[in-house]
Amino acid sequence: MGTWSLYILRNERNALYTGISNDLPRRLAEHRAGGCRGARFTRGCTTLDLVYTCKLGDRSLALKVELRVKKLHKRRKEALVAATPNRQQLLDLLDLGVTGALLSESNF
């Protein structure tokens, strides 16, 4: 198995979908195919654009990050996508890292 990554997709309605995978090209193909292997959210979408990705490492950390990102309000997710944080910055932003934060509270 490969390194686990967090990814965020944007659909034609400008909605954001957050997921994790250890094989991102395969997972994106599943989402875009719209079949039973894609998430329910993405099945009816006509366009899905990858707007953010971050390699995280193991599955346990990826699940923690995914849960925290999914709990963010759309405005905060948009700020995250715009900032394109690297791994350490993302972990810091979500209070899963050791030092400082990437985005100030005013960006949220």
TrEMBL record:
<dbReference type="Pfam" id="PF01541">
    <property type="entry name" value="GIY-YIG"/>
</dbReference>
<protein>
    <submittedName>
        <fullName>Putative endonuclease, GIY-YIG superfamily</fullName>
    </submittedName>
</protein>
<keyword id="KW-0540">Nuclease</keyword>
<dbReference type="InterPro" id="IPR035901">
    <property type="entry name" value="GIY-YIG_endonuc_sf"/>
</dbReference>
<feature type="domain" description="GIY-YIG">
    <location>
        <begin position="2"/>
        <end position="79"/>
    </location>
</feature>
<keyword id="KW-0378">Hydrolase</keyword>
<dbReference type="InterPro" id="IPR000305">
    <property type="entry name" value="GIY-YIG_endonuc"/>
</dbReference>
<comment type="similarity">
    <text>Belongs to the UPF0213 family.</text>
</comment>
<dbReference type="GO" id="GO:0004519">
    <property type="term" value="F:endonuclease activity"/>
</dbReference>
<dbReference type="InterPro" id="IPR050190">
    <property type="entry name" value="UPF0213_domain"/>
</dbReference>
<keyword id="KW-0255">Endonuclease</keyword>
